[in-house]
Every structure is written in structure tokens, then in C-alpha cells.
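Budget justification aside, the reviewers requested a transparent look at the raw inputs and outputs of the sequence design task funded under Objective 1. We therefore reproduce one unedited record. The lines immediately below are the C-alpha cells for a 457-residue chain.
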């Protein structure tokens, strides 16, 4: 008994020292709760990713296991390499491009698309090793880095409003108010009120308590049903999709374009998420940079490569990690906690998947509020700074893409600064990156047009 207690104390001290919990003003309890909250807000990927990639002809059951395994491995890489409270998983948007553009529209096999993801991962490893990705991140203008958390805040608020049923699509106005007679809206409202009140009262774990209470309310309303039968089951085999690569077309023009698209979108999605979440965690310097940048980018590159071997689309850092940061997560221990929750979900999937989107939506809305606070740091009176920042902010939610927000912010920054005679405010690296971004947009749009002609049925 004494030996067991001594071991526990030793282990706790090791964890505290390894992740520097005291230096980051956090505790093991805070970190574990933050990781659970991050898991709950992004656990939808366990059902959504298999559904999307199954449309490309991949085995849905195998995809469930692969999605969980890829998320666990990639998140642990982030935890132990970069020691950041950021989770990684197959990226939304990138999985849609994989399934609906490469496979369904262009007519290639899912094995071809998986090969493209593997090649992308290898390229990312090389770019990271030679510090090229780190150079790109550091070259992003300070005002754009200030705008990124704000844009992400609005982006995840939009996701939360949609998930909670507060808004819905409309052909005439794009968006309109949701149907407040639906139970899911009231589940979300209850969670939002509970989280807000508990946060105001400085109650630890306010977000997690709100999610749990909302889920229980959903059970009471009959919108959520307890799992039938056993809640414990062995995960399906990944054999049908494991390492199923197709090498005979790797030198084709289409392969080059597909790989380039994966690279382009993932680069700026990951960069945007890292900058946004790390800034809100208070781990970045005055220029928006942070010492673990290269290691974080390497964790992303390795995650994508390993994920492709397991049989899933591109891995990226998840913006939902901001919910864990808002709950006090500051170190890689938060990411470890998230990874452990996904490991448990492998065997208790029915239980975890019972939590509805409406119950996690309030967490995203609250975190959106926390993240837009950095808007006060932006000098909107100076239009050469204010307009690029504004475009970065609004393009993220309106295009449903962090990457597009950064692209349009960067391009507008260069154009406005140069044409207004303030070209000295723009570094050579920013000019080069912007030219490459501009050319990439032209190439991608031309390829889409040519593809629509070539693959039109």
C-alpha cells in the first residue's frame, strides 16, 4: 500500500515537472478536465469522418477505428513533441475534398487519394525539417496574427449556432433564425445559460458541467436515448483500409494538383489553429510566435503521414481545442487527456456518441466569445492594417475555412501596403509567400474549371 502511494506521488511529480504545470499556472485536474472538454466538442469526428469517407467507397466500420487511432496518435505527438493543449484529427473539409472531389468527381480510387495524403505528409515532414513551414508562420504579419483568433472565434461561434439549431440555411438570405420549437435549441439554450452563470461565478469545469446538464436534459425530453444492449464492444478491424496505396499514377498531373491542394489547405488550417489557440492560452510572444512552433508543425506532419497509413484523410489541428484552453488547459497534458478519451471511446463508442451536438454547441459559442477579445489589439483606424485584419476575420466564418481567411488577409495586406506607398512594411518573405498564394489560387481555379470539363458526365 505504501509502495503504491509512493509510486503515485512520484508519478504526479514527474507529470508536473515534464509538462511544467506550475510554470503554466495549471494543475493535473485542470488539464484532465480541459482534455475531456476538448474531446466532447470534437468527438463528432468519430461519426462524421467515417460517413464522409465511406461515400468514397471505404469501409465505414474500419474507418471508425482508424479515425480514433489516427486522432490518438496525432494528438499524443502534439502532447509529447510540442507539449501544447491542441488535439489533432482528420480535418473536416479535407475529408470532403478527398471523397467528393478526388474520388467521386474526378473518378479516381480512394487508394489514389490516400496515396496523395501520404505524399503530402512526407513533403510536410521535409518542409518542417528544413524550417520552411516555420518561416512561413513567422512571416505572417503581426496584424494578421492578431486577427486570426478573432476570425476563429466567429468561425467556431457559427459552428456552435448551427449545431445548437439557433440558425439554419436559407436560399434567399443564406442564414436565418432557427426553429425555436425544436428541442435541440432548448437543450443548447440550457447549456449556454449554465456555462455562462457558472463561469461568472468562477466555477471550475463550467463548460463540462454545462455539457453534462444539457445531455441529461436531452434524455429527459426524449431526444436522446440510452444505448441499447452493451455499451462495450471491441473496435472493428482496420485491415480493409490499412496502407492501401496506389503508386501507378503518382507522377500524373492530377496527382500533383491533388497533393498541392491538400498541402495548401492543411498548411493554413493548421497555422491558423495553432496561432489562434496558442494566443488564447497566453503561450505566444508579442509577435504571435511561440517556441514550440517547429515541434507542433512536425507533430502535424507526422500525424498526416501515419494517418494515411492507417487509412484516413489529412490530419490537422482542431479548432475545438480552444474549448479546452478556455477551461484552463495550458500544456500537453490536456492533449494527453483528449487522446485517452478517444482511446476509451474505441471501446465505449455508444456511450460517448450519445452526447448530442446541441449539448456541445454552447461550449463553442462561449469559446467564440473568449477568442474575439483580441480584436481590441487591432488598429482599425489605420486602413492598411485594419482592412487586411477585417478580411481575415470575416472570410473565416463566411467561407467556412480558416485557410481562406489567412490567404485573403495576407494578399490584401501586401496589395494595400504596396499601393499606398508603405511597401517597407512588407518583408521579402511576405512578398514571396503572397505571390505563391496568388499563383496557387489561379492554378487551383483553372484546374477546377478544366476538371469540370474533363469529368463532366
Amino acid at each position: 500500500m505504501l509502495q503504491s502511494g509512493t509510486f503515485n506521488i512520484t508519478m504526479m511529480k514527474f507529470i508536473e515537472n515534464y509538462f511544467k504545470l506550475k510554470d503554466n499556472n495549471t494543475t493535473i485536474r485542470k488539464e484532465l478536465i480541459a482534455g475531456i472538454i476538448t474531446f466532447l466538442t470534437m468527438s463528432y469526428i468519430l461519426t462524421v469522418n467515417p460517413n464522409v469517407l465511406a461515400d468514397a467507397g471505404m469501409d465505414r466500420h474500419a474507418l471508425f477505428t482508424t479515425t480514433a487511432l489516427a486522432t490518438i496518435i496525432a494528438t499524443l505527438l502534439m502532447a509529447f513533441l510540442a507539449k501544447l493543449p491542441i488535439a489533432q484529427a482528420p480535418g473536416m473539409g479535407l475529408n470532403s475534398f478527398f471523397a467528393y472531389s478526388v474520388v467521386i468527381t474526378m473518378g479516381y480510387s480512394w487508394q489514389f487519394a490516400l496515396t496523395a495524403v501520404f505524399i503530402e505528409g512526407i513533403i510536410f515532414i521535409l518542409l518542417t525539417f528544413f524550417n520552411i513551414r516555420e518561416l512561413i508562420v513567422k512571416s505572417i504579419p503581426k496584424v494578421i496574427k492578431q486577427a486570426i483568433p478573432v476570425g476563429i472565434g466567429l468561425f467556431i461561434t457559427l459552428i456552435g449556432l448551427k449545431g445548437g439549431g439557433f440558425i439554419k440555411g436559407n436560399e434567399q438570405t443564406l442564414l436565418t433564425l432557427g426553429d425555436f420549437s425544436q428541442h435541440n435549441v432548448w437543450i443548447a439554450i440550457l447549456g449556454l445559460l449554465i456555462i455562462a452563470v457558472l463561469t461568472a461565478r468562477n466555477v471550475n469545469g463550467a463548460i463540462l458541467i454545462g455539457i453534462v446538464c444539457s445531455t441529461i436534459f436531452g434524455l429527459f425530453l426524449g431526444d436522446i436515448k440510452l444505448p441499447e444492449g452493451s455499451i462495450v464492444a471491441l473496435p472493428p478491424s482496420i485491415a480493409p483500409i490499412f496502407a492501401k496505396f496506389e503508386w501507378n499514377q503518382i507522377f500524373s498531373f492530377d496527382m500533383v494538383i491533388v497533393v498541392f491542394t491538400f498541402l495548401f489547405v492543411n498548411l493554413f488550417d493548421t497555422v491558423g489553429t495553432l496561432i489562434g489557440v496558442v494566443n488564447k492560452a497566453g503561450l505566444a510572444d508579442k509577435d504571435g510566435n511561440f517556441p514550440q512552433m517547429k515541434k507542433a508543425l512536425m507533430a502535424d506532419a507526422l500525424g498526416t503521414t501515419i494517418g494515411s497509413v492507417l487509412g484516413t484523410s489529412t490530419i490537422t489541428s482542431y479548432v475545438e481545442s480552444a474549448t479546452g484552453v478556455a477551461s484552463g488547459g495550458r500544456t500537453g497534458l490536456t492533449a494527453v487527456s483528449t487522446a485517452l478519451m478517444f482511446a476509451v471511446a474505441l471501446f465505449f463508442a455508444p456511450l460517448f456518441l450519445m452526447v448530442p451536438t446541441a449539448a456541445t454547441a454552447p461550449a463553442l459559442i462561449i469559446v467564440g466569445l473568449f477568442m474575439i477579445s483580441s480584436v481590441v489589439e487591432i488598429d482599425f483606424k489605420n486602413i492598411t492594417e485594419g482592412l487586411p485584419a477585417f478580411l481575415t476575420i470575416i472570410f473565416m466564418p463566411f467561407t467556412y475555412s480558416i485557410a481562406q481567411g489567412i490567404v485573403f488577409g495576407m494578399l490584401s495586406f501586401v496589395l494595400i501596403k504596396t499601393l499606398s506607398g508603405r511597401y517597407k512594411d512588407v518583408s521579402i518573405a511576405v512578398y514571396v509567400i503572397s505571390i505563391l498564394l496568388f499563383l496557387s489560387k489561379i492554378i487551383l481555379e483553372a484546374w477546377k474549371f478544366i476538371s469540370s470539363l474533363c469529368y463532366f458526365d
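The beta strands are 88-90, 167-170, 174-177, 315-317. The chain has one domain: 24-454. Computational costs for records of this kind are itemized in the attached budget.
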